[in-house]
Amino acid sequence: MPLRDHFHSSSTYLEWEALHGGWPMMIAQRLNSLMSEEYIAQPSVRLGDMMEIDVAALERESGGNSFESTSDGSPSVALWEPSKPIILLDTEFPEPSEYEVNVYTQDEFRLVAAIELVSPSNKDRPENRKTFDNKCETLLKKDVSVTIVDLVTSRSANLYGELLEELDAQRTAISRSSIYAATCRGRRSGPRWCLETWEHELAIGTALPTLPLWLSDDFMVPLELEATYEETCRSLRIR
Predict the structure, then answer these.
(1) CA 185, 190, 196 angle in degrees (round to 5)?
(2) Rounded to whole angstroms, how far apart are CA atoms 166 and 160?
């Protein structure tokens, strides 16, 4: 099945959030079936400022003190007001959502590879793009292989291209595309440090690529984006 445009579709409500929430688990499951017991892949989803809580949970947290009873026994809102807050920081800068898969060694639980699924909030403002690129740069310089998968068609920024600029690397044609997938790793040779990349431009209606996921200098496993993407879409009934 071809790559869908999950950001300009009305077929499923919040379709991209469902995909980004489920895809990391599918990727982790597939990697764990391919890798030896020496490694373990774990999904991670952090929703930044986007949080939901149900009423029952709210009542449990409040200890049941949110309501009083009136003379006829019906509940009423308690007459309580908090003190005025102390404003330490006044800002409109939200935390971006993060969707990723991390691969660790089992013995030391050392991070060796990270797969970053770009969200709209990663691309929506310079501050968030800088945060994303700084994170990737730090991982690369710690010998962690980094894969960036960007399906966000609603915003045009290219985080991979901006990362290359941060590393003083030459930008390629794909680093200017709005959607793409790329694996990067840093390699040391004596005092020199070089960046190696495997990149693919994506297009709606075409299959996703398979990328190398480097676990050490001379060992990698295939990151099967197409198979895990399709399994996620089938599981979530995304057409």
Answers:
(1) 20
(2) 10
In sign, the C-alpha dihedral spanning 53, 55, 56, 58 is positive
Query: Is there a contact between 91 and 125 (Cβ–Cβ < 8 Å)?
Result: no
For residue 182, what are its two tokens?
């790329």
Helical spans, DSSP H, in the chain: 15-34, 55-62, 120-123, 126-141, 159-166, 225-235
Mean pLDDT per block of 10 residues along the chain (239 residues) reads 81 74 96 97 80 37 48 59 61 70 96 96 93 95 96 94 93 93 90 91 96 95 97 91
- DSSP 8-state secondary structure symbol assigned to residue 142: T
Name the 3-class secondary structure at 201: strand
Chain-centre distance for alpha carbon 96: 9
- Name the pTM for this structure: 0.79
Sign of CA dihedral 150, 155, 156, 158: negative
DSSP secondary structure string for all residues of 166-184: HTTPPP-SGGGSSSEEEEE
Question: Are 33 and 82 a contacting pair, CB within 8 Å?
Answer: no
Residue 230 · residue 26 · CB < 8 Å: no
SS3 216: strand
